[in-house]
Amino acid sequence: METGVPEPVGRRGDAPASREAGVATEPTAPATGASAGPTAPATGASAGPAAPAGHPGWTASLLAERPAPDLRGDLSRFGVGVGLASLYGLALGARQGGVSFAHHAAGVPAALVAVACLGVPALTIVLTLFDATLDAPRALSATARAAAATGLVLGGLAPAAALFVVTSASNLTAALMGLLGLAVGGAVGVCVLLRDLRAALQRDGGLLRLAGHGAALLGFAGFAVALALRVWWGTLPILNGDAL
Known about the structure:
Blueprint: H1 9-12, H2 14-25, H3 28-36, H4 39-46, H5 58-63, H6 71-93, H7 99-129, H8 136-167, H9 171-203, H10 210-235, H11 237-240
Helix pairs in contact: 6-7, 6-8, 7-8, 7-10, 8-9, 9-10
């Protein structure tokens, strides 16, 4: 006769069942946290402030293309180009000194003024013969931008020009180096002017008569080069022989 009361079967399995249930439920919390974890950095990165846009420099603003002509801005740009070109004149006048500073400082930008006052109006009149609609504000804007580009080049070459003209043993070498800088600055200005005028004609549909307009622009380029050389040769003592 058995006196002990057998332990119920269900009570024996309670502990393992509880342990299994605990093991099964334990990974759920990390899984939830792991799935929610990456979302916070992503949300924070998207909500961060955007990087501030950079501001254009003075040179970029001076040479920037404007959507519409601005009389005051164009005159100011042309004046800056003339002033920078005067720096190159001062560098050329350093060889002789004295009154030569004033002669060269006035003679170098005189070519820019001559081309702007004589060449560009003449080109505008010639283009009207080919039914090109180039108004005066656009021509002035292109001229001012070309003068600014020429002035920047000449102003940048001024220190090197002063070094060459002062240290050159030969007067002819000093004159040739000075003329080389003038040629580089003038070529840059003419290229900028022709490109802007060509773009203005294209906006107005003027390039349908490309042959006539191209001939007029090429003729103007030759005229501008000849006029600038004539002005420089007559006003710069380092070129016309007065300083040689």
